[in-house]
């Protein structure tokens, strides 16, 4: 019998920290918008990521700036202007986004698999 030992999650799955950073709830759509459309003001960004609240957008932008994925530029004008753009580090994720975009052709298969699963789970079960 093999003895199980605890393994640090980062050693068990070395991409887990990457997934935590890049694929948190709002990070991916924000980065995608900045990558696709370039520098954005807060209002324009919130219009492109339509279902995010201003509070959450602010929190995510701050975290992404802290992580080095986004650069924030403040212009001391009247009224003040702030713009956000994807950093070089954030832009380095472009191949990953492109690969995920290519994989999206499989979404119909995922939906069909879900429907098949749900149909099997809702069907009356036979007693054996």
From TrEMBL:
Pfam families: HxlR. InterPro entries: HTH_HxlR, WH-like_DNA-bd_sf, WH_DNA-bd_sf. GO terms for molecular function: DNA binding. The keyword Electron transport does not apply. Keywords: DNA-binding, Transcription, Transcription regulation. The keyword DNA-binding applies. Residues 13-112 form the HTH hxlR-type domain. PANTHER family: TRANSCRIPTIONAL REGULATOR, MARR FAMILY. This is Helix-turn-helix transcriptional regulator. It comes from Kribbella qitaiheensis. The lineage of its organism: Bacteria, Bacillati, Actinomycetota, Actinomycetes, Propionibacteriales.
